[in-house]
Design brief:
GO molecular function: rRNA primary transcript binding
Region (Disordered): 1-21, 48-75
Order of helices and strands: HHHEHEHEEEEHEEEEEH
CATH architecture of the domain at 102-316: 3-Layer(aba) Sandwich
Distance between the termini: 79 Å
Subcellular location: Nucleus, Nucleolus
Oligomer: single chain
Strand content: 15-25%
Number of strands: 11
Keywords: Ribosome biogenesis, rRNA processing
Shape: globular
Function: May be required for ribosome biogenesis.
Length: 324
C-alpha cells in the first residue's frame, strides 16, 4: 500500500463503520417528487417505525422481568373512552328511580315474561339484491322473525297490521344506491321507535374465516357499554328482540357493543378447543349502527314526539362526550 493510505475496508484493522441510518430525523416523505418512489419510501419508513416500536417494547419487557416485583406498575394508556366526559344521566343499577322506570316502561311486559318476541323484518320499497340477502341473514340471527317485502305499502298501514298479528317489534331496513344504510326499530304496540344510520354491512360470504351456517338455537345476547339513560333504553330495545332463555347448547352469541356511540353488531359461535381454551368463530352478518333519533310511540314522521335527536353541530362539540 502507498504511504498515507488507510487500512483496507473490512480487514478488521480500522475503526468500525458507523451503523447506517435508514432515514435521518428530518426526513420527510412529502419532499419526494416521484409518486412511485414516494409510496415505496413511505412503506419503508412505516416498516422501520414498526421495528423500532417492537424493539422498544422488548427492551421494556426485559427491564420489567429483571426488576421482578420491584417493577413499577404499568401505566394505563389514555384513550378517548377512559377520558370520557362525565354524563349526569349515567345509570346506577341500584337507583330506585331507574328500577321504577324499568318496571313501568314499554318493555316491562317482555322482561316480566308476559310477551314472547315476534319480529317482522321489512325493507324500503323495491329492495335490491344485497338488502334482500341481508334481511334473510338477519332473520336467521333473530329467532321467531319473519321477512316481508313492502311492495309500496306505507309504514303507517303496516304497523296496525303487525299489531293485529301479535308482532312485538318491527325492523325496517332502508337502502341507498343498492346498499343498506338505515335501520328503523319500532317496539309494538306503544313504541318507542329508534332510527339508526347503518354502515359497514358485511354479509356472510364477505367475512373471512367464517363458520358454518347458524343453527336454529336461541342465541345468548351480550349488551356492552350502554351506560346512560338513553343507552339503557336502546339496550332494552335490543334485548326485547330475543327470547328469554338462550339455548347454550347451540354455542351462539349475538353481541351489541357500544363504543363511542357506535353500536357494533357481531354474531359468533363458541369453539371449545379444550377444557381451558375457548375460541370464537364469526358467523355473520355484521354491521355498525349510529343512533339518529328516538321517538315516542310508533313510527310517525310528521306528528311524532321525539325523546332524543342527534344534532351534530350542537352535540358533537367534544370528542370525549358520548350519549349512550
Amino acid at each position: 500500500a502507498g504511504e498515507g493510505s488507510g487500512p483496507a475496508p473490512g480487514d478488521g484493522t480500522g475503526p468500525p463503520a458507523p451503523e447506517r441510518v435508514l432515514f435521518p430525523p428530518t426526513f420527510s416523505v412529502s419532499e419526494i417528487k416521484n409518486k412511485q418512489r414516494r409510496h415505496f419510501m413511505f412503506l419503508r419508513w412505516k416498516q422501520q417505525q414498526r421495528k423500532e416500536k417492537l424493539a422498544l417494547k422488548k427492551k421494556r419487557r426485559k427491564e420489567r422481568e429483571a426488576l421482578g416485583d420491584k417493577a413499577p406498575p404499568k401505566a394505563i394508556p389514555k384513550t378517548i373512552e377512559n377520558q370520557r366526559v362525565y354524563d349526569e344521566t349515567t345509570v346506577d343499577p341500584n337507583d330506585e328511580e331507574v328500577a321504577f322506570d324499568e318496571a313501568t316502561d314499554e318493555f316491562a311486559p317482555y322482561f316480566n315474561r308476559q310477551t314472547v318476541p315476534k319480529i317482522l323484518i321489512t325493507t324500503s320499497d323495491r329492495p335490491r339484491g344485497r338488502t334482500v340477502r341481508f334481511c334473510e341473514q338477519l332473520a336467521t340471527v333473530i329467532p321467531n322473525s319473519h321477512v316481508y317485502y313492502r311492495r309500496g305499502l306505507a309504514l303507517k298501514r303496516i304497523i296496525p297490521q303487525c299489531i293485529a298479528r301479535d308482532f312485538t317489534d318491527l325492523i325496517v331496513i332502508n337502502e341507498d344506491r343498492k346498499i343498506p344504510n338505515g335501520l328503523v326499530l319500532s317496539h309494538l304496540p306503544d313504541g318507542p321507535t329508534a332510527h339508526f344510520r347503518m354502515s359497514s354491512v358485511r354479509l356472510r360470504k364477505e367475512i373471512k374465516r367464517k363458520g358454518k351456517e347458524p343453527t336454529e338455537h336461541v342465541p345468548e345476547v351480550i349488551l356492552n357499554n350502554f351506560t346512560t339513560r338513553l343507552g339503557h333504553s336502546i339496550g332494552r330495545m335490543f334485548a326485547a328482540l330475543f327470547p328469554h332463555d338462550p339455548q347454550f347448547i347451540g354455542r351462539q352469541v349475538a353481541t351489541f357493543h357500544n363504543q363511542r356511540d357506535y353500536i357494533f353488531f357481531r354474531f359468533h359461535r363458541y369453539i371449545f378447543k379444550s377444557e381451558k381454551k375457548v375460541g370464537i368463530q364469526e358467523l355473520g352478518p355484521r354491521f355498525t349502527l349510529k343512533l339518529r333519533s328516538l321517538q315516542k310511540g310508533t313510527f310517525d314522521s310528521k306528528y311524532g314526539e321525539y325523546e332524543w335527536i342527534h344534532k351534530r353541530r350542537e352535540m358533537d362539540t367534544s370528542r370525549r362526550k358520548f350519549h349512550l
